[in-house]
Amino acid sequence: MSSTTATSGLSRARRGVAPGGSGAVPGKRKSKLSAQTTRTFFWLLLPSVVLLVLIHGYPLIHAAVQATHDGDLLQTGNFVGGENFASVLSSPAFWKAAQFTLWFTIVGVFGSWLVGLGLALLLRTRIPAGNTFKVLLLLPWVVPIVVSSTAWNWLVATPDSLIPSIFRGLGLGTPLFLADPTLASITVMVFKVWVSFPFMMMMISAALASVDTTVYEAASMDGASKWQQFTQITLPLIARSTYISWILMTIFCVNDFPTIYLLTGGGPVSATTSLVVLAYRTVFQDFATGPGVAIAFLMTMTLVVISVILYRQIRKSSVE
To answer: What is this entry's stated membrane topology (predicted)?
Structure first.
């Protein structure tokens, strides 16, 4: 059967036109919400919105004041305008932390997504002791980060730890995973993937559970290969959940303080210092509140931009 026929069948399957499909009837439009329903939703949401503004409004305003002053934790200090932002943006430490944060986020988001996707697809098949396997896979996410970081420190922190000892026994030397800047960065990123993949796995599993299996049966009848079904049915159908999980995981990675601080403390030689760790050090160790809060504001603005871009992708990811 030709590839054109298979592609046409995949298109029909995604629309739900194929046997067992649940696509919308052409020409049928959804009725718009009535004005009364819209007003009801508005009054139901208003108390929550007001509460959120009250809870977050004051800290945000106070942080904005601190970012434009040269004070410390006890005093606001004098107004300096944008000097704190200028000093932060001209600091080599800031750009070094920004570079590590970028790589940490990329590896954390896409690494955990790839692992979670693979395991979610595996869990759709019949495997022995499937329920027990699912529970075990959730442990890295469920176990407190303090416990996980302690376990990883026991595995890699010193030359006599388990994994360096294994390398030494195999004649591969004694790698210092938390003392070498490059190895420490890689270790922290791998640790982030380890503690995050269960979240991605659950998000993808929930999306896959809503996919009608008859869609795949229809695609098989039209001659589509397993790879074609994966790339042209599975991925498009879970696209919205994928973008949502990317937004959430990006926020988790950029704002992740305990994963890095408990494992390496930001070292060695600031190799694993992210922006949030740098902001913490600036405020609570150097007592420079203005520059520290300025770093936090720059992080927030970056996250807002990334979230808006991914949110637009969510709106575009309609299955045709």
So the answer is: Multi-pass membrane protein
